[in-house]
Structures are given as structure tokens and as C-alpha cells.
Amino acid sequence: MKKLEQLYEGKAKKVFKTDDPNLYIVDYKDDATAFNGLKKGTIEGKGIINNRVSNHLMKMLEKNGIPTHLVEEISDRETVVKKVTIIPLEVIVRNIAAGSLAKRLGLEEGTKLKHTVLEYCYKSDELGDPLVNDYHIYALGIATKEELDLIASYSFQINQLMSDYLKDLNIELIDYKIEFGKTPDGTIILADEISPDTCRFWDSVTGEKLDKDRFRRDLGNVEGAYHEIMKRLLGE
Ligand code: ADP
Ligand code: UDP
């Protein structure tokens, strides 16, 4: 497999073409941003941790019947993935109120939700990723009803699998963001990443935040939290 030209540089990853037209290589960076790019910084070693943690979680999901883009980890920061056309939605799943939901609905952070919440944001940096509902998604032609039903079903299955898996490691899955993409034959698979950048992880015993909120809110020990997540998941 040959790494060819860079196609895209995002806020957290670079995407490269390969000599296989169906595969890309993603390269995870240490750059961190928050508040739609307004806050910028570096989290030392984050790229390595997110690459490994995301692959570890995707492998677990794949084993349990969720199709993902993961092909092969080829270095500390690089992974071969199936090329997809990203469906421009940030799919957010919430078990406990935090972040923008707590603010929007006036809930205290940490309030247990009586039902899992599924939200969609339209991926658009210019618009600041606005919240949309299923009708907006059909109206804009972002996904059909059949496609969105499958995305929702995968998202709830992923929530159950991840919550159960993390619970045994004393990690509570508060909320997370995932993205889906379409392979050239139209199959919908889980893409992008699942990491402390894209999930809220709280220690089940102490309630300590072990995710990007430490960076967003200047809570200190950001690197330590990312390391702790890698240690609990991968044992190192
Ligand atoms: P952003 O674009 O929000 O700054 P990243 O820095 O993570 O985010 O950039 C990675 C980009 O690659 C994202 O736009 C993501 O949607 C996209 N992506 C993730 N997985 C795949 C894949 N398998 N195929 C094509 N694009 C992907
Ligand atoms: N999230 C993400 N990328 C985004 C927005 C949110 O990965 O662009 C994740 C975030 O880490 C959290 C969940 O989605 O785990 C819900 O985020 P929320 O809507 O509360 O937004 P925030 O508080 O980050 O503004």
C-alpha cells in the first residue's frame, strides 16, 4: 500500500489517497480545536492516542456486527480506512445531559436522561453545524428515510455496545458524536473516529472528566486524561 497525495487536512486529521482507489490513509494530528475553531491548541501525543483508541473501539464494534471503515492500523498515527462519501451529519447520542444539551434545555450537567437522546447536526463549518431534525435531512436530500433509519439503528446499537464495554473499565459514556459514510456500492458504514475528542467519558467512581472537555474548559491535565483512557482501553 502506497501513501499518495494529501486530499484534505482537517482540524484533527489529514486524509491521504493511496494506490488503491477504494482506500484512504488517515493521519491523526496533535492539534486541538474547540468552539468551531475559535480555541486552538496542541495536546501532546493526542494523535497517537486517538488513532489507537478509535481503532480499538471500531474493532470491538465490528466484532459485534457494526460495519466500520477500519481496515488496518499501519503506524502510531496512521490507519488505512475504506474510502467513503461522508454523509454530512454529526450524529450525537446522549445518555447524560452535558455540554450544549444541558445549556439548551436548562438541565444540570450530569442529569441522567430518562431516554437516550439522538440528535443530528448538519456538518457545515460556515453555519456552525446547526441542529437539524429528520425532516430537514429529507428536505435537504442529505439522507433518505431508509438511510436515516439505518443510521439511527446503528447509533443506538453502538451506544449499547460502547456503554457496556466502557462500564467494565469504570468509564461512563455520557455522550458522543459519530459520522457515517457511503461506500461506492452505497453501503452505509461507520467512519471518522471515536475518541476522547468526540466522546464525553467520565470516571464512574470519581466523576472525573477524561475527555476533550479538559481542553475546552481549561481543566488541566489534558494529556493525563487522554493517557488514562488509552491505558484503560488498551492496557498501556
Ligand atoms: P474536520 O473536517 O471536522 O476538521 P478531521 O480533522 O477529523 O475533521 O478531518 C477528517 C475528515 O475526514 C472529516 O471531514 C471526516 O468527515 C472525513 N473522513 C473520516 N473518515 C473518512 C473516510 N473513511 N472516508 C472519507 N472521509 C473520511
Ligand atoms: N462533538 C464532537 N464534535 C463536534 C461537536 C460535538 O465530537 O463538532 C461531541 C462532543 O465531544 C460531545 C458530544 O459530541 O461528546 C456532544 O457535544 P455537545 O453538543 O454537547 O457540544 P459541545 O458541548 O462540545 O459544544
Report what the structure shows:
The chain is α+β, with helices and mostly antiparallel strands. The protein has two domains: 3-82, Phosphorylase Kinase, domain 1; 85-234, ATP-grasp fold, B domain (D-amino Acid Aminotransferase, Chain A, domain 1). Helix content is 30%, strand content 34%. It is built from six helices and 14 strands. The protein has helices at residues 46-63, 99-105, 134-139, 145-167, 213-216, 222-234, and strands at residues 3-9, 13-18, 23-28, 31-34, 39-42, 70-73, 78-82, 85-86, 89-96, 112-122, 131-132, 171-182, 188-191, 199-203. The strands form three sheets. Strands 8, 9, 10, 11, 12, 13 and 14 form a seven-stranded antiparallel β-sheet that branches. The protein has a five-stranded antiparallel β-sheet with strand order 1-2-3-7-6. Strands 4-5 form a two-stranded antiparallel ribbon. A hairpin with a 5-residue loop joins strand 12 (171-182) and strand 13 (188-191). Helix 1 packs parallel to helix 6 (222-234). It is globular. The relative contact order is 0.16. The model has no long low-confidence stretch (mean pLDDT 98). The structure holds adenosine-5'-diphosphate and uridine-5'-diphosphate (UDP). Uridine-5'-diphosphate binds at residues 90, 92, 98-101, 129, 175-177, 198-200, 212.
Q: How are the SSEs ordered, and which strands pair?
A:
Layout: E1 3-9, E2 13-18, E3 23-28, E4 31-34, E5 39-42, H1 46-63, E6 70-73, E7 78-82, E8 85-86, E9 89-96, H2 99-105, E10 112-122, E11 131-132, H3 134-139, H4 145-167, E12 171-182, E13 188-191, E14 199-203, H5 213-216, H6 222-234
Antiparallel strand pairs: 1-2, 2-3, 3-7, 4-5, 6-7, 8-12, 9-10, 9-12, 10-11, 12-13, 12-14
